[in-house]
Design brief:
Elements lengths: L8 H7 L4 H6 L3 H15 L20 H23 L4
């Protein structure tokens, strides 16, 4: 899930292809407490909703429709925040 390049390089590189929640779960308490606020800010979306479910062997179980719906929902939240921040009317 794209982060619009809002994460600092060291977090973005370490996060790799994991979801924000997967990445945070891999950290120790100190790093998680430091990095979670940054990741939550950059996500513009509740991290608990940014989860790709997986089944046995770590195989993704989320359907394409579910994934697209999640991305579209996040995109709408980001769009609304940008419109609000720029003081635009739609």
């Amino acid at each position: 899930m794209g982060n619009l390049a809002l994460l600092p390089d060291f977090i973005n590189d370490a996060k790799d292809d994991r979801t924000p929640r997967e990445y945070l779960d891999s950290l120790g308490d100190t790093d998680r407490n430091t990095q979670q606020p940054v990741i939550e800010y950059a996500a513009f979306f509740p991290l608990e909703k940014m989860v790709i479910c997986s089944g046995a062997g770590g195989v993704d179980t989320m359907s394409r429709e579910e994934y697209v719906g999640l991305i579209e929902e996040r995109q709408q939240v980001i769009r609304e925040k940008v419109i609000d921040a720029l003081g635009l009317e739609v």
